[in-house]
C-alpha cells in the first residue's frame, strides 16, 4: 500500500509479500492477526476415479561436489551491520546458539563484539540504534504470527525491556529522533484492532504517552523529528489516498481539515511521501501524478511548491541516500534492471565515486555517524558474499571489515544476468537469469545447450525482483538448472502503467507474462521446454498453483510456498487493520461484493480448477501464517485427495508467512531439492541431518518424494 516511507525506516505493506531469498533484508512486515480459518471447500459429488497404482520414485543422482544447503540457507556469519549514531560502536546480527541475535562491539575492532540480545527460538531480523547510543531496538513476533513487539536493550545494564507488553497487538516503530534521543514513536493497535494509535515511549522506563488517537481510520502517518504527525493517510472509496494535515485549521468547527493532497487510485502505489528533513519544513515526495514513473520531488510543506530532484523515464525512483543529521536527500536511484544513481548534493559526489571502485556489485551505504565522518558500506555482488567496509570520510579511505558468510568465499557461484523480455502485448518484462556456472563458459547468459529450468516467481504481487546475491538462484543453478525470475505486470518499480496493467489480471495477463517468459527461454535455447518447473512463495505460490491448473501442460512440476488457492477466502480473512485498504484489494483483484467480482475471483482461484492438475505438486505452509492462512493449503490438498490427485504437503507448526528458522528452511529445501530432481533430473545433496531441529510435518504425500519418509524423525 502507499504508506509513508521515512528515510532510514521502511515499512512495507503488501497483501502477499514474497518469501525473502537473501539473508539481507530491510523489510518490517506488517503485523497481522489471523481470524479463524475458513471452512475447507467441499469436494464435488462426482465419485473420484479409482486410484492408480503408485510406484515409489527412483533415487535421484547424488553429487558430493554440490554447494551444501547449510552454506546457502543457514545463518550468515554476520549481517545487517550498522554504526551507532556517534560512530563509536558497531552492531550486526550474528548467530548465538544457532539463533540470530544483535551483537555490539567497538567500531575500531568488530572482533570484540558480544551478543546483547538472547533470543532462543526465532532470529531477530530487524533492529535499530536509538539516538542515546546506549540502546539497541529490535522487533520480534512469536512463531511467525506477525504480532510484533518492540524491545529496547540497555547496553550498559545488559537489560532488555518489552516496550509494548500488550497481548495481541502488532506494534509499528514509526520513528526515532536525534531531537528526542530517549524516546521512540510507536504505533499500537490495542484500543481498536483495525487502526494504530501513536505513542511516545520512554526507552528506559517503558512509560508511554498518547500523541495521536487514530479516530479517522488512518492507515499510515508521516511524522517529523519532533514526533508530530504532519500527514495522516486514509484510503479513499476509489482506492486512492487522501492525506490530511491534522494541524491545519478546518473550515467548519468539529470537522476534519480539507485534504492536504489527494492521490487517485492509478497513482496510489507510485505516489507517497518519503519523509521530512530534520527541520520539518521540507517534505520529500515520490510522485507519478501527471507522469508515468515516480520521480523524487522536494516540497515546501507550507506553500506546497515542488521542485523536481530526480526522474527516470524507464523506472521509478526507489532508493535514497539521506544526510544523517539534516535529513536532506543527497542522492537517489531509479531501478530498471540495476540502480542508476543521481547525485543531488555534489559534496558527496567524490565519496560515491570512490566507493564505486570497491569492486563489481551494488554499493549500499548502510549507516553513517551523526557527524557524517564515518560510514559503513556494503558491496553486494551477484556471485559472491556481501563485503562490508568502514569508510573514513575525512581521510577518504576504506577498510575491509568482513563478509556476511565466509563459507561462500571461493565457492563456484554464478553471475546473475539482467534480461528484458517482451510480453505478447509489447511490455518490457525486466527479468533475471542465472545459469549453472559450467554451462555458461562465456559468462554471457547463453548456455551451451538448453537446460532444465526453474521459473522462480516473486511474491507481492506489488513488489519486484532485483539484481544481486540471491541464495535461491545460486542453489538451483548449482543443481544444474537455469533460473529465471520475471517482473510480470503488476510488479512495482516500472511506472504506474506497468503496475496498473496487473489490475484484475491475477491468473490472467499476469500469468501470460510468465508463460511468455518461458517461451522466450525455450526459443533462445536457454531452457528445455519439457523440463520447466514453476516455484514461488506467497503470490509466487499462487502463480505456481495457477501454472498447474490454468496451463497444466506447460510445467513439469510446481513448488508452492504459502500460496493462496482460493481468492475469495483469501480476501474474506483480511486482518482487521488491513480493513482501511480493502477498497484497493477489491479494485486490483476483484470485488467479492459484486456478482461480476465474485465470479472473477472464483474463476481465477486454482481451487476451482483443481481437477486439471496433472503434474507433481509440492506445497509448503506455515501453520501460523497470518496472511495466507493454513486453510488455503489445506483446502486444495483436500480437494486433490478427493480426486486421487497426488500432492506432497509439508507443514510447519512454528512458522508463519515463510520459513524463518534455519532448521525449517533447511528441511523444506531438502524436500524441494529431491522433488525437483525427480521432475527435472538434476543432482541432489542427500538429506543427511537437514531435518534435525526442524518442526517439519508431512500430512500428505510423503511417499511421493524419495527418501523423505525414512529421513523423518521417528516418533
From TrEMBL:
- The answer to whether the entry has keyword Signal is yes
UniProt feature, compositional bias: Pro residues:
28-50
Q: Which residues form the Peptidase S9 prolyl oligopeptidase catalytic domain?
A: 468-681
Q: Which GO terms describe its biological process?
A: proteolysis
UniProt GO molecular function: serine-type endopeptidase activity
- InterPro entries for the chain: 6-blade_b-propeller_TolB-like, AB_hydrolase_fold, Peptidase_S9_cat
Q: Where is this region: Disordered?
A: 26-57
What's the protein here called? S9 family peptidase
This chain's source organism reads: Polyangium jinanense
Amino acid at each position: 500500500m502507499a504508506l509513508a516511507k521515512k528515510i532510514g525506516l521502511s515499512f512495507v505493506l503488501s497483501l502477499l509479500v514474497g518469501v525473502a531469498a537473501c539473508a539481507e533484508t530491510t523489510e518490517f512486515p506488517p503485523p497481522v492477526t489471523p481470524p479463524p480459518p475458513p471452512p475447507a471447500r467441499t469436494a464435488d459429488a462426482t465419485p473420484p476415479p479409482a486410484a492408480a497404482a503408485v510406484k515409489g520414485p527412483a533415487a535421484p543422482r547424488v553429487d558430493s561436489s554440490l554447494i551444501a544447503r547449510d552454506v546457502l540457507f543457514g545463518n550468515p556469519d554476520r549481517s545487517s551491520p550498522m554504526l551507532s549514531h556517534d560512530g563509536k560502536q558497531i552492531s550486526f546480527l550474528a548467530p548465538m546458539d544457532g539463533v540470530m541475535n544483535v551483537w555490539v562491539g567497538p567500531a575500531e575492532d568488530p572482533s570484540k563484539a558480544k551478543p546483547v540480545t538472547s533470543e532462543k527460538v526465532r532470529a531477530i531480523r530487524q533492529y535499530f540504534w536509538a539516538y542515546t547510543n546506549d540502546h539497541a531496538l529490535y522487533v520480534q513476533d512469536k512463531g511467525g504470527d506477525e504480532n510484533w513487539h518492540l524491545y529496547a536493550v540497555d547496553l550498559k545494564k545488559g537489560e532488555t525491556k518489552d516496550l509494548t507488553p500488550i497481548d495481541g497487538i502488532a506494534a509499528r516503530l514509526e520513528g526515532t529522533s536525534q531531537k528526542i534521543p530517549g524516546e521512540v514513536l510507536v504505533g499500537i493497535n490495542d484500543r481498536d484492532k483495525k487502526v494504530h494509535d501513536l505513542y511516545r515511549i520512554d526507552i528506559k522506563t517503558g512509560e508511554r504517552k498518547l500523541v495521536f488517537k487514530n479516530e479517522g481510520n488512518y492507515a499510515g502517518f508521516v511524522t517529523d523529528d519532533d514526533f508530530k504527525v504532519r500527514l495522516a493517510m486514509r484510503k479513499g472509496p476509489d482506492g486512492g489516498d487522501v492525506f490530511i494535515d491534522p494541524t491545519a485549521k478546518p473550515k467548519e468547527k468539529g470537522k476534519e481539515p480539507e485534504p492536504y493532497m489527494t492521490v487517485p487510485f492509478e497513482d496510489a502505489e507510485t505516489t507517497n511521501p518519503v519523509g521530512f528533513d530534520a527541520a520539518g519544513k521540507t517534505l520529500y515526495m515520490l510522485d507519478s501524478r501527471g507522469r508515468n514513473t515516480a520521480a523524487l520531488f522536494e516540497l515546501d510543506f507550507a506553500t506546497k511548491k515542488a521542485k523536481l530532484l530526480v526522474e527516470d523515464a524507464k523506472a521509478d525512483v526507489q532508493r535514497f541516500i539521506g544526510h544523517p543529521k539534516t535529513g536532506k536527500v543527497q542522492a537517489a536511484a531509479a531501478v530498471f534492471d540495476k540502480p542508476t544513481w543521481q547525485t543531488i548534493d555534489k559534496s558527496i559526489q567524490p565519496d560515491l565515486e570512490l566507493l564505486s571502485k570497491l569492486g563489481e556489485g551494488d554499493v549500499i551505504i548502510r549507516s553513517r555517524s551523526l557527524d557524517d565522518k564515518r560510514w559503513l558500506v556494503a558491496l553486494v555482488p551477484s556471485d559472491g558474499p556481501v563485503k562490508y567496509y568502514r569508510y573514513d570520510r575525512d581521510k577518504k579511505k576504506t577498510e575491509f571489515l568482513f563478509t556476511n558468510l565466509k563459507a561462500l568465499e571461493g565457492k563456484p557461484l554464478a553471475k546473475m544476468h539482467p534480461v528484458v523480455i517482451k510480453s505478447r502485448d509489447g511490455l518490457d518484462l525486466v527479468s533475471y537469469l542465472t545459469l549453472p556456472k559450467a554451462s555458461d563458459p562465456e559468462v554471457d547468459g547463453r548456455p551451451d545447450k538448453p537446460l532444465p529450468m526453474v521459473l522462480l516467481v516473486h511474491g507481492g504481487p506489488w513488489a519486484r525482483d532485483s539484481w544481486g546475491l540471491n541464495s535461491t538462484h545460486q542453489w538451483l543453478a548449482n543443481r544444474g538448472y537455469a533460473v529465471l525470475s520475471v517482473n510480470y505486470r503488476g510488479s512495482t518499480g516500472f511506472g504506474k502503467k506497468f503496475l496498473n496493467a496487473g489490475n484484475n489480471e491475477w491468473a490472467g495477463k499476469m500469468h501470460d507474462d510468465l508463460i511468455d517468459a518461458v517461451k522466450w527461454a525455450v526459443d533462445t535455447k536457454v531452457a528445455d521446454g519439457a523440463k520447466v518447473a514453476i516455484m514461488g512463495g506467497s503470490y509466487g505460490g499462487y502463480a505456481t498453483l495457477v501454472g498447474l491448473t490454468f496451463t497444466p501442460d506447460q510445467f513439469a512440476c510446481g513448488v508452492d510456498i504459502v500460496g493462496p488457492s482460493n481468492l475469495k477466502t483469501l480476501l474474506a480473512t483480511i486482518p482487521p487493520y488491513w480493513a482501511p485498504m480493502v477498497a484497493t484489494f477489491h479494485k486490483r483483484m476483484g470485488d467479492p461484493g459484486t456478482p461480476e467480482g465474485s465470479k472473477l475471483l472464483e474463476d481465477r482461484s486454482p481451487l476451482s480448477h483443481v481437477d486439471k492438475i496433472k503434474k507433481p505438486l509440492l506445497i509448503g505452509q506455515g501453520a501460523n501464517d497470518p496472511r495466507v492462512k493454513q486453510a488455503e493449503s489445506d483446502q486444495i490438498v483436500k480437494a486433490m485427495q478427493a480426486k486421487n490427485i497426488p500432492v506432497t504437503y509439508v507443514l510447519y507448526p512454528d512458522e508463519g508467512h515463510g520459513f524463518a528458522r534455519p532448521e525449517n528452511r533447511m528441511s523444506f529445501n531438502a524436500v524441494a531439492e529431491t522433488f525437483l530432481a525427480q521432475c527435472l533430473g538434476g543432482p541432489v545433496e542427500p538429506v543427511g541431518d537437514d531435518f534435525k531441529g526442524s518442526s517439519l510435518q508431512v500430512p500428505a504425500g510423503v511417499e511421493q518424494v524419495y527418501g523423505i519418509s525414512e529421513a523423518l524423525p521417528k516418533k
